[in-house]
Amino acid sequence: MKLIKTTAELIDALVAVRGTIALVPTMGALHDGHLSLISAAHADSDSDNDVVIASIFVNPLQFAQLGNCDDYRNYPRDVDADAQLLESAGVDFVFAPEVAEMYPLRTPEVWVSTGEMGSQLEGASRPGHFDGVATVVTKLFNLIRPHRAYFGQKDAQQLAIIRRMVHDLNLRVDIRAVPISRGADGLAESSRNQHLSASDRRKALALPTTLTALRDRRIDLDQARDQLRNCPGVDMDYLEVVSPDTLQPITWPPTAPALALGAITVGGTRLIDNMDI
Fold first, then answer.
1. Residues 135, 112: contact at Cβ < 8 Å?
2. Neighbours of 46 (CB within 10 A)
3. Average pLDDT for residues 142-163, to the nearest whole number?
4. What is the mean pLDDT of residues 156-173?
5. Binding-site annotation: residue ranges for beta-alanine
6. Is the model's pLDDT at 51 over the cut of 70?
7. Can you say how many angstroms the Cα of residue 237 is from the centroid of all Cα atoms in its chain?
8. What average pLDDT score do residues 142-167 get?
9. Given phi > 0 = left and psi -120 to 50 = alpha, else beta, which region is 26?
10. pLDDT for the residue numbered 41
11. What sign results for the dihedral spanned by CA atoms 133, 137, 138, 143?
């Protein structure tokens, strides 16, 4: 495995690549969910990925105040440990640039706008977040030119936006979704989980528990919201049922495939989750 930190090195390395390239974009702080993306890239039954590239980049554009915030400053970073984990998972190249390498002229003037899809749900609580995501993912696609890119279903809104971006901008990359990886207790794997105390983790289980009850039609949407709001130590941001493609709200009960998404804060840590309905 080769660790690459500059775009010049990346371009030189890619010149020698023959065959199809799979990309797994990450922000580091790797966990089993990320490793499931790597496994999917290796095991994809209807493709033959010759080279697997993972990126590690904590993108300031998708944080509040363009990264001038505690959430960005405190985001866990350990590139060496992440690179060792990726090497053991069979990744061929790790692209781990510094901010100045990705944005040499500082904050870019030209961004990718995610419109209404990026302004609701997570976007309503984190204005500009998805514009930052779409901008950096487009840069990665342009630099690496992958044939396929792998994204986790846990970030369902991000996945829907990336798919629409690829369609609208005629980007030549196949987006592959990988199912949510969960801990033994049912909590969706997330880099932010490491900020949870044992007590807070138990409280956070209210989100997957409520989503499961909603999925199984044991409660309706209003009951699910009430259930989540009334959980001790849990601050609910939103709980919605939407179209998985457009993210537009769907009237309960849904008569077509739908997606339930929720966001909560527990002990100062913001968590998201979703389930197909």
1. yes
2. 5
3. 98
4. 98
5. 62
6. yes
7. 18
8. 98
9. beta
10. 96
11. positive
Give DSSP secondary structure letters for the chain: -EEE-SHHHHHHHHHT--S-EEEEEE-S---HHHHHHHHHHHH-TT---SEEEEEE---GGGSGGGG-SHHHHTS---HHHHHHHHHHTT-SEEE---HHHH-TTSS-S-----GGGGTSTHHHHSTTHHHHHHHHHHHHHHHH--SEEEEETTSHHHHHHHHHHHHHTT---EEEEEPPPB-TTSPBP-GGGGG--HHHHHHHTHHHHHHHHHHTTSS-HHHHHHHHHTSTT-EEEEEEEE-TTT--B-PSSPSS--EEEEEEEETTEEEEEEEE-
Cα–Cα dist 198/163, whole Å: 36
Cα(63)–Cα(76) distance, integer angstroms = 14
| 34 a catalytic residue | yes
Name the residue among 6, 136, 4, 143 with its Cα closest to residue 66: 136
Averaged pLDDT, 63-89: 96
Whether the upstream peptide bond of residue 253 has omega within 30° of 0, thus cis, is yes
Q: Binding site for ATP: which residues?
A: 27-34, 152-155, 189-192
Q: What is the pLDDT of residue 48?
A: 86
Q: Where is the binding site, in residues? A: 27-34, 62, 152-155, 158, 189-192
Q: What is the pLDDT of residue 271?
A: 98
Checking if the pLDDT of 234 tops 80, the result is yes
pLDDT of 45 strictly over 70: no
Confidence of residue 80 (pLDDT cuts 50, 70, 90): very high
